[in-house]
Amino acid sequence: MTGSGADSGAAKPPSRRRNAAPPRETVLAAAMSSIAEHGLERLTMAGLGREVGMSSGHLLYYFRSKDELLLQTLEWSEEQLGMDRRAALARQVPVRERLDAYVDLYVPAGPRDPHWALWLELWNRSHAVDEEARARLLDIELSWHRDLVALLVEGASRSELRTVGDADRFATRIRALLDGFSTHVAMGLPGSERTQVLVQIGEFLDETLH
C-alpha cells in the first residue's frame, strides 16, 4: 500500500527537487563566469559540473558536446547583450549618440573578454561544425547587422548622418572594421587598448558619416 499511510520508518527515495538538474541559464551563467575568471582553455565539463552540482556525463546528456555547450553559452550571452543593445538603440537621443552606444557594446571590454573569447573560439572551430551550428552563429551576426543598417537608414532619413548609398553594404564595411579592432582588443595586441580603439572608430565614423 502506498500513500500517506506507508510506514514512516521505511527508507525514503532521494528528493526529486534535490536531484533535479539546475536551470539551463544557471549552467550557462556558470560557464561564462568560469571563462571570465579562468579563461576558456581551463573550462572543462567536469569542472563546470562540480560548479553546478552535476556530473560531466549529466552535462553531456543535456548539451551533447562541449562545442554545443559553448555555442549555447554564447547564445545566452548574446541574449543579455541584445537586451542592452535594444535598450540603448531605443533611447530618444541623436542617431550618432546611439551609434556610439552600439560600438561601445560591440567592442570587447578588454583582453580575454569572455564573450569575445567564445566568439573567437567558435569561429575558429566553425569549419569543423555542422551547418546548423554555423547558421546559429550567422543569426547572431545578422542581429547586429540589422540594427546597424536600421541606424544608418534612420540617420540619413533625419539628415543626422550622411547618406551612404547602400546602407547594407556600408554596414558590412563598418562591422568588418569593428571585428578587426575588436579581435585586436580581445587578443591584447600592443597599441590596441579599448580606449584607443574607440577613439579610432569614432574618428572613422565622423569622417564618413558627417
TrEMBL record:
Q: Enumerate the UniProt keywords alphabetically.
A: DNA-binding, Repressor, Transcription, Transcription regulation
- Where is the signal peptide, in residue numbers? none
Annotated DNA-binding residue span(s): 44-63
Chain positions covered by the region annotation Disordered: 1-23
Does the record's keyword annotation contain Isomerase? Answer: no
Q: Name one Pfam family in it.
A: TetR_C_6
Where does the HTH tetR-type domain start and stop, copy by copy?
Answer: 21-81
Cited InterPro entries: BetI_C, Homeodomain-like_sf, HTH-type_TetR-like_transc_reg, HTH_TetR, Tet_transcr_reg_TetR-rel_C_sf
Do you know which PANTHER family this protein is assigned to?
A: HTH-TYPE TRANSCRIPTIONAL REGULATOR RUTR (PTHR30055), HTH-TYPE TRANSCRIPTIONAL REPRESSOR BDCR (PTHR30055:SF200)
Under what name is this protein listed? Answer: TetR/AcrR family transcriptional regulator
* Protein source organism: Streptomyces albidochromogenes
